[in-house]
Amino acid sequence: MGGRLSTLDPSTLYPSRNIHDFGAGGETIVSPFVLVGVLLAGLLILVLPRKYLIWAYLVPLILIPIPQAIMLGALHLRMGQILTVIALARLVKDGLLTRSIQKNSLDRAFVWWALSYATIFTLRFQSSGALINQVRGVFDAIGTYYVLRCLIRDEKDACRAIRVLAVIACIVGSLMAVERQTGRNPFAVLGGIAEVSEVRNGTVRSQGPFEQAIPAGAFGGTLVSLFVGLWVRDPKGKYFALLAIPAALTIAYTSACSTPILAAAGALAVFSLWPVRGKMRYVRWSIVVILLGLELVMKSNVWWLIARVDLTGSSTGWDRAALIDHTIHHFSEWWLLGTNNNPNWGYDMWDLCNWFVAQAVQGGLLTFVLFILVIVRCFERLGRARKAAEGEFRKEFFIWAMGATLFAHMCSFFGTSYYDQMTFSWYALLAIISAVTILPSSRQTNRKRPVVFDSEKLDLAAVGASADGGGQP
Asked: Which among 418, 420, 409 has a CA at the least distance from the CA of 80?
C-alpha cells in the first residue's frame, strides 16, 4: 500500500499542503485494519460514557495515517473526519454540543483564525475546488477542536486527555524505536505511508504514523513537558507519565531531526524559569532587548541565527532562515490574500517549513495576526490561572507545564508546519488550556452560594457576596 501513496491526494488537514489539487482526483485507500479500527472506535463513541469518549476519539485520530481516505465525488473523506462526524452526532444526541462548554476568548480567536485562513485561501484561487478544499479544512479545524472542547471541560478531563496522549506516545515511541533499528516502518501495515524509512546522512529518520519525520518527532518533543505536569498534578497519571516521558523523548530522538530536540529544549528552558515565575515581565523584556542588541551588532539579521542550528548533522537550518528572510522582503506579495509565488523566491522556497510563515504566505496578514492572537490568548489565560493558583503548588506547576508545552510548540513552528496528525495534538493542547484556565468564579456564574448566619453577628459582606453570585473573581 505504501507504493500507492503517490496516487493519493497529498493535500493535508489544515492548512492544505497541496495548493493545486484541492482534494480532487485520487482513489479510495482504506486498510482493512483501519476500517475495523474506525468501525470499533465509532461504536465506542456512540455507547461509552462521556468521560471515556476521549479514548475512543483521540487514539485513532492520531494513530491512523492521514492518507487513509474514502473518495466521495470530489471529496476525500478521511478517517478522522468520519470519527468527528460520529462524535458530533453523539454530542448533539446528548445535548452536550452547546451547553457543555463555556466559550471564551481563546475559542473565539481560534474560530476567527480558521475562518480567516479558509476565506483568504478561497478568495486567492477563486475556484470551486478551493472552496471545497477549505470547507473541509474548516470542518477539520473547528469540528475537531469543538469535539475536544466538549470532551475536555475541566482540569479532571484535561488530566484524562493527557493520559490518553501518554498511551499514544508509548505506542508510537515503541514502534518508532523498532523503525530506527530496522529501517522499516511498522505503521506501514496500516497503509498510506512508506514502508522503507527515509535515511539521511546514514541515519534512519523514523516517522511512525505521521507523514514525515519532523512532525513525528515534534509530536514527542512537545509532549514531554505536558507529561511532567501530569506527573506532578495527577496521582492517577503518575505511572502514565513515568512511561510516557521516556517514550516522548524516544520519539524526538529517533526522528533524527533538530526541530523536536529544540522543542523539548524550549520547554526545559521554561521550566528553568519557575523560580522567577512572578517576574516574567522582566524576562520577556530582557529577551526583546537581547534580540534588538543582536540585530544591531550582527552583520546579518537576527533570524539568520537559525541557519546555524544543526543538532543532528543533517538539518537544513539555512532553508528556514532564508524562508523567513524572503517572507519579510516579499511582504507586498502576500499581505492581502497570501501568495502562490513563494516557489519563485529562491531555492527550496516552495517548502513552507515554518508554520508562522505558512500562516502569512497562505493566509495573508490577517490570518497571521489571528494565529498570533491564538497564542497570545493562551499565554494570557495561563498567566491569570497561574496567579489564581498561587499557594497550590501542584496546580500552579501543572499550569506552568502547559505554558512550557505551548512554548515548545512555538519552537517547533520555526522548523515545521503542522499538516498531519500534529494538528490534532495542537488542537488538543488548545482545548486543554481553554478548559483548565477557566477560573472558579467563572464556573459558578449564576450559582448562588449559601448564606451562613452567625448567631451573634450578621456578616453583611458575606450576604452581599452570596447575593451577587460569588463576589470578585
From this structure: 420
